[in-house]
């Protein structure tokens, strides 16, 4: 199905872009080590070290993003753990304001996330933002992580979009590099993916300090088209 229109498609990452990454940091770097230690009868230090080794082995692969994989790997129901703390899932500031603007201006908005299908469904239920998006894709359903050019090739095959006109906003540089290799030109990153984390000051890509800053970027691009 084609989504070509006069206005560019805006493709968003989810965690760290639309959603505050502090929740994921809390689950995977704080709560899971506690549960792993309880489950396996080891110290928190031993648990943290074991999980760190696992994370290093699977970083930037589909397994890294799979709750099903991690539940089997560590012996803890990781989806249940996420649901236990569901009240901490939070949108980043300006998210709804930006999405309302884009919808009112006729932009097609997509989500392209590495979150697995279960995690994606869970977070969409918590945030109630699905209705803003024309396409919502998990890398699990594509078969490749967003870091891989094959993800973008298959996404474009399934849901054609204007490669040279569309915008992609993501908080992870390696993901943006994968999109760049595919041919996407309008690539943007996030200054502070986690409200509890450091503020990014340098990047090969333009940095959004606030999500609503995207509005200015798009308006400037529209003006340039008019006077080109």
Summarize the structure.
The chain has 228 residues and is an alpha/beta fold. Pfam families: HAD_2.
Task: Walk me through the structure.
Pfam families: HAD_2. GO terms for molecular function: 5'-nucleotidase activity; phosphoglycolate phosphatase activity. InterPro entries: HAD-like_hydrolase_sf, HAD-like_sf, HAD_2, HAD_sf. There is one protein chain. By secondary structure, the chain is of the alpha/beta class. The chain folds into two domains: 10-20 and 91-227, 3-Layer(aba) Sandwich (Rossmann fold), CATH 3.40.50.1000; 22-87, no CATH class. 48% of the residues lie in helices and 10% in strands. It is built from ten helices and six strands, in the order βαααααβαβααβαββα. It has helices at 22-40, 44-58, 67-74, 78-84, 95-104, 117-127, 139-142, 149-158, 173-182, 213-227; strands at residues 10-12, 109-113, 135-138, 167-169, 186-190, 207-208. The chain has a six-stranded parallel sheet, with helices on both faces. Strand 4 (167-169), helix 9 and strand 5 (186-190) form a beta-alpha-beta unit. Helix 1 crosses helix 2 (44-58) and helix 8 (149-158) crosses helix 9. The chain is elongated and about 65 Å long. The two termini are 30 Å apart.
Count every beta strand, where a strand is a DSSP E run of 2 or more residues: 6
Radius of gyration over C-alpha positions, nearest whole angstrom: 18 Å
CATH architecture of the largest domain: 3-Layer(aba) Sandwich
Distance between the termini: 30 Å
Number of helices: 10
**Range of strand content:** 5-15%
Instruction: Predict the CATH topology of the largest domain.
Output: Rossmann fold
* CATH H-tier superfamily of the largest domain: HAD superfamily/HAD-like
Mean pLDDT: 94
Structural class: alpha/beta
Task: Give, in order, the helices and strands.
Answer: EHHHHHEHEHHEHEEH
As laid out across the biggest beta sheet, the strand order is 3-2-1-4-5-6
| Structural domains: how many | 2
From the spread of the alpha carbons, the general shape counts as: elongated
Residues in helices, as a percent range: 40-55%
CATH class wording of the largest domain: Alpha Beta
**What quaternary form is this?**
single chain
